[in-house]
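Expect chain and fold; thus:
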Amino acid sequence: MLKMNCGLSRKIGQPDYGSRGAQVHLEVELSAELLKDPEKLRRQIRGCFGVVRQAVDAELGVDESTEEPARLPGAAPASRPPSDPPSTPKQVRALHAFARRAGADLAAELRRLGVTDAAALSRRQASGLIDGLKERAGDRR
């Protein structure tokens, strides 16, 4: 018998620097016979993560077809406060570079932050996203 753990934690930015999040973690037992068929084992793992992802998305009200977060009732679209200037061109270039290195879908990351273009991020948002992508890419600079 094999024991597999899979989990996902996700946060969605909200207006005025708020956020809401959800996490799901599962532990399942699988037949040791799967070790003889690595592709079948990978399908089981992908399936488990698919179930976990759907549960987190449902909890957060994310539309699976667009991965856009549902707005909270009465919430205005996200806007950048004047105290947080727009992202710089250098930050936008860095976002694209680190997303490539991390193998991340930058468009999906931007949708989670409520924008469609990296230039629409604030400097603080861009900085936070760059740090996350650097970590995922294994770049600790």
Remarks:
- The helical segments are 38-60, 89-102, 106-112, 123-137.
